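Today's session is about reading a structure prediction critically. Students often jump straight to the picture, but the first step is always the sequence itself: look for stretches that repeat, for charged clusters, for runs of hydrophobic residues. Only then move on to the predicted structure, which in these notes is written as discrete structure tokens rather than atom positions. Here is the chain we will use throughout the hour.
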Amino acid sequence: MNTQNLNEQHSAGALSDSDTLAIPCETFTLENGLTVIVHENHQSPVVAVNVWYRVGAKDEPAGKTGFAHLFEHLMFGGSGNLPGSYLERMLEAGALQVNGTTSRDRTNYYQTVPLEALDFALFAESDRMGHFLEGLQQDVLDRQLNVVLNEKQERESAPYGMASVRSIKACFPVGHPYAHTVLGEEADLKNATLEDARAWFQRWYRPSNAVLTLAGAIDLATAKEKVSRFFAHIPTGEPLQRPAVWVSAIQGGRREILEDRVTHARVMLSWNLPPYGDADTTALLLLPQLLTHGVLSVMHRQLVQESAIATFVNAWIDPGLVCSQLTISAQAQNGASPAELEAAILAILADFIASGTPADNLERVREVYLTSALKSYSTVTDIADLLSFSVGMLGDAQGYSRLLNSVATVSGETLRQTAARWLNEDRYSLHIIPFTARSAEIPSPPREVPPIVLSGEFAQPELQRARLDNGMPVIFSSRPQQPETLISLVIPRGSSWDVFATAGAGQLLSQLLSECGAGDFTADEIADRAERLGADMDISIGQDNMLVTLRALTSRLGESLALFSARVRHSHFTEQEFERSRSRKINRLESHLNTADGMVSLLLSQTLFSAGHPYAQPLFGSGTPATLAEMSFTGLSEHQQRLLVPDGAQLVIAGSGDFDALISQLNTLFGDWRSESASESLVLPALTASAAVVYLIDKPGVSQTTIAAASLIPPGETQDDAAFNLLHEALLNGFASRLNASLREEHNWTYGVHGILTQARAARIQGFYTTVQADCSGDALNEVWHQLTAIDGERPVTAEELEKFRRGELLRLRGGSEGVGQQLQDVRFIVVQQKTDDYWQRYAQQLSALTTDDLQRLAATLIKPLDMAWVVVADMAEAEADICRALPPELPVIRLKDNDLPGLSSLNVLPQETAL
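Below is the predicted structure for this chain, in token form.
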């Protein structure tokens, strides 16, 4: 490849008109004060519905902290004409996205639904705005109070989880609207009464305090008719008192040290800034990118790469209506102390304040910021959220455009002077240090019928195919209206190939290749070029495949492809880069293995696959600190030559590029790419059934118990895919699953249950993961066991369940490729799983034809809790007795201490002999 020609191509200066973020929309207001924004976009038959209430944690008086977040949960508990779970109803209606979020300044609820479900979604949102109190009863309040208390405990008890709590209390004085967390104080939540909740709703959740955004396949006239029909009858609210701007100074600075059960120290520095949209805060928006984002940023280079005293460094601005904050956070490594790391951060910041940054560097960072904004809002879900945010935080729907225009013109000197004005000694400094001590080892008009949602017709996008001169297949799915084109090179060599190297080699290699040089370019030059082009390149690895993916603006696709080719064919790394990346990876793995997630992942990866099988890689391919320490520069270089080869590779493309032009460009760049010699082959031996075992991991001091279980099941035939996925959703995964409904909604023991599902070439892993209140560990485990056994016994899948999950899945399938990223994933799934081009069309047909007998056949075959590997992480001094009472006596139990886990890095702990 001619890298000189690449350098001489388009300089990637200012964005062209076609590459700027422009979102046409219309705004109108109902007589009751509801502000409505409409963005018409017919790229997919879906509509995003986003409701933004101007109420957040800042509006909570003393004694009522956490109420805004509590209401985020309560309003999913049903309303007058839609009793029961709002989430379940929306999932049944085929919602592609549905959730709610709370911040200091607002609460918002959103769902993206197929066009057929739009009336239902509008009815549902209007019902909880106008008729919510009719469904609010004491049992709903009690249930959701337990859920949010579980969420608070889960978040704040996680490693580093108290950092934000300490920061908030230190940065804002008593009485400041931001002086408490969004999750609130535990005592305030426990004291909440039904009367308090009703009064809170009456005050804040009114149409005059709300913004409704509709984005998608809807025009203004239709929007006006529908919104008036569903929302006009709701009474307006009263005038509200709102907090004024209050940028409280952290005068003279505040310093704190927090001990936490973590493996590595961290430093967090925070400064208070003016509100979001203020000229000074806008001028500083580029500073986090300049300082910490990407391999070219000054702090990443000096702290992570050169001095290697940090594993990572990151900076961000938290926007706020009362004030904003800039925070810099870094994790120490190689024996660096928090004081040393803080001094290095402040020295770099002082140098910037004194000297600024070269104009060329500022322009590169500005380009990255603006192109990232363009790419971040390519789906109607994201567009609706941006327009609501723009009204709520900046005053009107085009506020985002003014802000981006300001960013596009801010000068380096303005940025430097603004940083000097605000990033001074008035800051908060938090050092989080490892706590290593261990406990002693001791034991309207009535609207009663919601609109009906009917399934829409699914039409799979047509795929185009071609072959390059070297025989490499190319598969293309067109999306003309998108500004981007995504290209993924699928190489059928994954972490299972670590059997030829060292455990963790593939993942470390993918990390290195994402950052190193390529061809005649140094690492910095290739990163600089990509940022100026607005191109993102990512390298990832799974059990069977390595993926090299390019996300590029279609208007700059030619130049981005040349860079992509250099990355694929000519990447090179130095021994110094290898040592630096390995050190960072070890640091992160040490932190990960200190968490319940890491312990679960390590034990399951070592138990589900028999010893010696290529899939039996620690942490599912991550390796361990011990295996990475054994890895050599030469060995990893040889592994690159083993993995990054064209044998069996395919190119998958989705977006707005011209197919014929793409093939011509790809032929120029890849048509002569052939393996220089015969490559190794990997034989995947027959799998044996995973061992049934229970690991009890003692982690003293944890306030919640983690429960996870998984089993190995054979790869399914295509005709079973739909039934298997529905069974997984109905029992294990997602809000509406039986496990989540029981543990979260009925018993309030957990913040949520998450399904585990992987699909490798030779096997699938299915299971679940959750954290529960420590004092309910035994009860929760007993209930999990009951739910898993009941589906093949006393409580088989019902026709009602089948229809609910089937309808939702069919509707999501119809609108699921709304974004070009999802479209790429759908096509790549066909390639990776070796399916036919009409796979998704046949999948929809299979969904339509499913019967309860189909689901029960699979349940009897695949849901076998006595054949699963179980991992329970808890403070065993408190919970072991209850846990053991809930376990079936026939399951073998292995007891471990949390600090024993790294010793299992190269073992398979049990023999596995049963045929799969």
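Discussion point for the tutorial: The chain has a mean pLDDT of 89.
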